[in-house]
Amino acid sequence: MSTLQHFIDGADVTGGAERIEVTDPATGAVVGSVPAGTAQDVDRAVAAARAAFPGWSATPVAERAAVVQRISDGIKERAGEIAATITAEMGSPITFSQKVQVAMPVGSSAAFAALAADFAWTEEIGNSLVVREPVGVVGAITPWNYPLHQIVAKVAPALLAGNTVVLKPTEVAPLTAQILARITVAAGLPAGAFNIVHGTGPVVGEAIAAHPDVDMVSFTGSTRAGKRVSVVASDTVKRVSLELGGKSANVILDDADLGKAVKVGLGNAWINGGQTCTAWTRMLVPAARQDEIVSQLVDAAQRYTVGDPTDPSTRIGPMSSAAQQERVRSYVERGVADGARLVFGGPEPVDGLDGAYVRPTIFADVAPDAVIAQEEIFGPVLSVIPYADEEQAVQIANSTVYGLAGAVFGEQEHALAVARRLRTGQVDVNGGAFNILAPFGGYKQSGNGRELGRFGLEEFLETKSIQR
After folding, report:
1. Which burial class, exposed, middle or buried, applies to 27 when counting CB atoms under 10 A from its CB (0-12, 13-18, 19+)?
2. Residue 331 and residue 89: Cα distance in Å, rounded?
3. Marked catalytic residue, from 171, 243, 376, 451
4. Is residue 200 classed exposed, middle or buried when 0-12, 13-18 and 19+ CB atoms within 10 A define those classes?
5. Which of 91, 235, 243, 394 is buried most, with the most CB atoms less than 10 Å from its CB?
6. Per-residue pLDDT tens for 45-69?
């Protein structure tokens, strides 16, 4: 069992007597614990970050990029340990942990390091010299579904830009953050440039968002929590970047390759057990072809093995916690109660499994305004929504408060034209691959700001114009 401390100014720092246990959702076993941090712990971490800022921000960009690259290398070297830790702390199947949970932060951090040489740190506009400078001390608050990727997507560009960081990782899955702390030390990052304060959102998260010496907060999590971060941060008028919830639509057009649309669509609905903010949880289908598509979905769903997340053949592990299990089950029960047609799965327990498991579920004939079609469930629950024509499909796709991701399947140019009409931050056309250099973020209540690539680096920079 891992008994961890805060990481402040380059060293482990003992917190108070109160601890937060970390539980393996597949077995219920306690696999670690972290201190329940306080506002005083945040003060200490922010002071360390503030003290480290002048030296780190003055470090040449090439040297900062080299440190970020060494962080990427360190993650890759410890990939097996990190993947196993993520599987233990939040239940992601081990194969997914290896191929995605670890591979993404390795790739994104290396991509940021490579950006440094050609990035426009300065430019000439008429008689002005435009200079991009670090914001200062960045507070990063991250979720449990991709516990390392979400950290690295903030920390790597923030450090590259010359900022220092105070991180509050999720208390549900905080163990991987401590591995990253060790990696940053080995990479040569100066003490105080990266700090970790464990704890809950209402205590540690709010202290970071409110702190007068924190210049920016970058938050990933629920829309409800993101709204609270914005409110708390507003007193100090600090910069706030939010990557929040989603209810993404997968629009299958009449001229789509149905086999591909169903296979890829289901995979992206149930990715990471549906615990993904970009999951395509609404499949919009031509009404006349709904039965055909549902039949294919049910056939494809049979191949999604639910089970022990340490088994390489498992495709869906437990939900991240018993609380998340209950949340997902309650939504499935609501879907049944509201009259959606249950075609696969259901609210019953998974046979033979005692952990935080749920049955992957598909509903058909879902009304566009139904609760299960409007609210983020964050589990393996797919709503199939029939539409009469393309105009209605676009209207339904844009009818939630969210706008994070989406997809369109159809003849390429036709699908691209529909994709342009979706009010969402990312759209995949015919299964287009995830691009780690492309901007990631949402419209509407899915947040503001962008992560990854050049756009993600720019989030952590101030812009100054010097007239000569």
Report:
1. middle
2. 24
3. 243
4. middle
5. 91
6. 999 999 999 999 999 999 999 999 9
